[in-house]
Amino acid sequence: MDLTPEDKKIGKDNFNQVIGTTRRDFLVGTVATAGATGFGLGSMYFNYGAKLDDPLRIGVIGTGDEGSVLIGALNPDFVDVVAIADIRPYNLHRAFYGDLSSPNAKKARPGLLKVYEDRYGWKDRTEAEKHIKVYADKYQEMYEDDSVEAVIIALPLWLHHVASIEAMKAGKHVLTEKLMAQTVGQCKEMGRVAKETNKVLATGHQRHYSILYANAVDTIKRGFIGDIHHIRAQWHRGNMPGKDSWRPPMPTEYMEENTYLDLRRKVKKEQGDAAEGALRTEHKILEQYFSLVKKSKDTKNYSYAEREIWEQHAQQAREQLKDLPVKAEDYGYMDNTLENGSGYKVTALEELIRWRLWNRTGAGLMAELGSHQLDAASIFISAQNEGGGKVYPLNVTAAGQRSIFPPNREVDDHVYATYEFPAPGYYKHDQKDGEVADPNKKIVVTYSSINGNGYGGYGEVVMGTKGTLILEKEKDVMLYKGSSTATNVKVGKGRDGPQLDTTESGGQEAAVAAAATPVDVSRGYREEIEHWAWVIRNPGKGEVKCGPKVAMADAIIALTTNIAIKEQRRIEFKPEWFDIDSPETPESIAPRDTSELG
């Protein structure tokens, strides 16, 4: 761990008194060893192999935003992609070449050519497709391929359940993106099929494989912050109408530039500036394409390297336009008129591309963002559970509304929730017994996820009787000793824009340690895929950290919160909901017999 100049003023003795010999010290000492031995940091930290002699042969089903992030996290020493599937030409293009939307997008989604550059050295998609089969129609055809041993499923939420069960019944192991499924009954069906088929089923709640979160758990277990009594979590984003990441531009019909300009002139003349502006918004991708083509041909104002970059961007925009002919209705998507009084008509293609906005295909902010942070809160609370295992919440009260965006969607843009979890001493024996010893022994978790203002970003504040642990953006962890001093929050400008600088005020104790690591630690995507592959290749030697039981619990928390928001009531969590073998669910829809599935 690195110390800032302010931290060093505290003194080495005081620092060691608080931190002690923890896994942080192991982490710092391991970095050099990992580099020297060829072991990955995750494999050493979580104690699985450095690589697989026979990398797991996988298919990736769904190569959109999240699927391409998972592709970017692949380690060729553990997995070998031999197939991909997506019905959108644009997503298939990104799967190979990466996402050029921004430098950050390219870093997160570098594409298969880059990921397997050192191993195969493919020059272009044509070369890569000699090794990787592309399924542009029905992903189910991939299940008939014996060379595919396992699949990563990153489809829209409403398809996680059916695609996973089909895969396991076809003999494939599965890593599905979060949320596990759209209903708790579906989660139970998935867990039961995994058991019956003896297939490894993992869900992508990557904080289970984050070294920073593992360090935080170790800090809690060692008692450095005392007894947890409150956790505050948030995920705030600056999304505004017109700049909403969940509402990407729709592809429109391609036309030559002169034809398009003539259309703009005609609309402006006959209908005015507002109509022309609406036309340009509708043809946003086409506008971008023409602009990029012009730059790529401009020999006067740009260098050859710059023109080459613009040409690549133009090609990506051109690929987006190829999504227009996709017949989304052939794959279960539907035309629909929203029932919110707006009269807004959703086409099947829009439901496919903007699936997070609709109740039929997604589950809103709690599924996409809140599930991660309530998972983290549960991990921290479970760290105090002497009996081991995941601690489940007692109840939830929640509210939500759409206060920023127009009625062109169904999901809320603001959600707030309060949970009560049992603290040590709440139960007489253990959680399963359910007999309460002290009803005051509770931990309150508050959560908010909003659009329209990204102040504070996202992270968790874990408050204990001896100190506070702050985790920010899955990158930074700060430990504050003591519990009586106030916190002064300042906003300054750093490398990545406004930064949240949290320091103690009042001349009391400063931050004991900023748990910065000497390396750019992964958010856990890479490690979760490595460990999933390692568990499959080494049966009986371990289990995935986010298997059916854990993932289902995360889904129950998120989906029950949605019910509390919709019905505007407090909901008590029932132990039977968390039992995969029980027919009880918060939706009151029992899981089906597995013989009827797949």
Automatic annotation (TrEMBL):
Ranges for domain Gfo/Idh/MocA-like oxidoreductase N-terminal: 56-205
EC number: 1.1.99.28
Pfam family, one: GFO_IDH_MocA
Keywords: Oxidoreductase
Name used for this protein in its record: Glucose--fructose oxidoreductase
UniProt xrefs under SUPFAM superfamilies: Glyceraldehyde-3-phosphate dehydrogenase-like, C-terminal domain, NAD(P)-binding Rossmann-fold domains
Region (Disordered): 490-510, 577-598
Domain of life per record: Bacteria
Keyword DNA damage applies: no
Top class in the EC scheme: oxidoreductase
Any one GO MF annotation of this record: nucleotide binding
Keyword Oxidoreductase: yes
